[in-house]
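Good morning C.,

I know you're traveling, so I'll keep this short. The sequence:
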Amino acid sequence: MSRKAKRVQEKTKKKVLYKLIVVAILVWLAFLILKYAPNYVNTEISDKTNLVINNSNVTADLKKDIIIENGVIYVAMEDVKNFFDPHIYYDEKYNQIITTSENQVTSMVVGENTMVNNGTSIETSGTIIQQGDTYYIPFSSLKDTYNVEISYIEATNTITVDSKDRRYVLAYSTKDNKVKAYPTAFARTVDTIEEAEKVTVVQNDNGKNNVVDGWIEIRTDTGKIGYVKEKTVTNELVVRETIEKKKQIEGNISMVWDYYSEYYSAPDRSGEDIQGVNVVSPTFFTLVDEGKGKIYDNAGDAGKQYINWAHSSGYLVWPSVSNNSYIETTAEIMRDYKLRQDLIENIVSLVVQYNLDGINIDFEYMHDEDKDLFSRFIIELKPRLNELGVVLSVDVTAPDGSEEWSLCFDRNLIGEVADYIVFMAYDQYGTSSTKPGTNAGYDWVKANIEKFIGQEAVKPEKIILGIPFYTRLWEENSGNLECYTVDMEDIEEVIPENVTRTWDDNLKQYYVEFVEDGITNKMWIEDAESIKAKLSLVSEYNLAGAAYWTKDREPDSIWPVISEALGVE
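The tokens, ready to paste straight into the viewer:
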């Protein structure tokens, strides 16, 4: 090959190599652009006031713009509902907004510069503003209600809100730093900080510093959120730790109702030891018929002695507050915020007076149209009890029953708000039944627990399973049907000797049938075996525990069964 040909060939090779290098560079640049270009897109919202809640910028999720007038921050009611109080409520009767938090209930009349916080009237720096169908809440006046710190950063038109019950950490930059939008050097710079400048360290869901691939997430004093290299932040200062709410009881709850009517005094339990129980619920309190929130207090001196006995014996005391099935009295109270507050104040006073550990709300027989208002009562009661460190449990019936006994409960909402929801798993076939049947069959109880968890979406760890210490004797006579309640301790006296007992494996109960004086008697027996079977559902579904209706209807032999099944001494 001639020299000229060789030179042409070498030149051609160089051109090809050059083109390959250029193509490779272009491909690499395209790759970098595709990979990192999104990191440089400016997603900040600059034409409205930004809202940063617990180090998360939620401005894009605001339904309405925030208003700032005369130093007062106004947030639309629907945004307060979305971010701070899902149960905020407009009370049409009194033209007021009612909002609740962990320990506070606050009501504000539209247009007035006062609010009532846990029963105390307080002046506010702003009033609720109505614009069309939108109510704007003077949010800066509610920092104590929501237990938050609120700051307005004028330079960046940003509001920061920090919950006082969450972990809060400060640190300092070791150098002049560029704060990146993402945890990579190839990202847009959202802010700059100087050496020794203080920053807030963002915490993750586990309560730890949010660190990604060596980059730590921070919030600057201007309210901007982004990342710097972890090694460039030092001298961390934990301002506060997350406040964890402690349970009164670790492990299973085992509660027994201790019933006595308003015509009697509290039972004398001195010297008694109830094995397998850690909570007692005496029936101290009932609504006064037409009493507009007044409570009949049937504790008295005997009740004080009962409480002293319980506490000295290691039992928590969660007395029941019953509506005594006063349907119209209940309706009147539920339909009026001020009457609900009167009732709540009366409950709070009783809690303080008797040094109670909890309250068990036992409202039965209510109008189904009052379902949401009964939920309002529970929503408004819970923060007041939280303030005192007192447990709230609420009794409900099985789902899918009658309007006034079953459909009057929003089990999902009650289960969300209350500490516990008590499923009264009895009266499967009650006094109004047109045919005989079991009082609490295992299969029926189990099916309804699954409805609570599935259909009603109640967390299993919130459910206490109510178990009966009684059954019913059914008498069939020439087409007529009557039934009588029989306590567990009296069952053996009712069944004649030599009557065959047949085990029903679906109901997990023995069944007996016998004829006396021409009358056919039928009974589904509650005994150690049936109770043990129902108690097994507590562990099977990871329920909160069990409760028993009621004390002194049971044989003494049942308590060791309960103790072993629930692991409660």
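Safe travels,
E.
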